[in-house]
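From the shared-data thread, chain only:
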Amino acid sequence: MSTAISWTTGVSPARTPAVQEIARVLSQVPDPEIPALSIIDLGIVREVHGDRVIITPTYSGCPATLYIEQSIRGALNDAGLAHVRIETTLSPPWTSDWISDEGREKLRAYGIAPPPKGAANASLRNDTHAQCPRCGSMNTAEISRFGSTPCKALWRCNACAEPFDRFKCH
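Structure, as tokens:
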């Protein structure tokens, strides 16, 4: 019987109370660039074990990585879980396919077009049109590969004329 949770494998193994508590604490840690999402929603947390948490930043040069690690450490310490280690790994690299379904809906509600599920396997360029998170139109166009943060691109809806960020597929 496994005593870990792994979000990246798509498998939900048996969980011990300790692992469940760690996962609960981590589900309350917001992403610093998109605070409407937790680090679990975004897929940054790869695995939770009774004695360690394994995370992968959204890309290797993510400027928020240290802050995320510090936020995790603070949350674990506050919950009486100071013994839990935090391990950061870059291999395999994070993929936008690891964003949870709930996370995709939270992105949309926050005004950011989430990448379509499975898009990371097909394209790094966001070649498909993004759905406008405001009006739902697919009549959209990329304005710039560079958005408000390095992991997002700037798009515009041709139907409602509103600009929006789109999470880059990778």
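DSSP finds four helices and eight strands in the chain.
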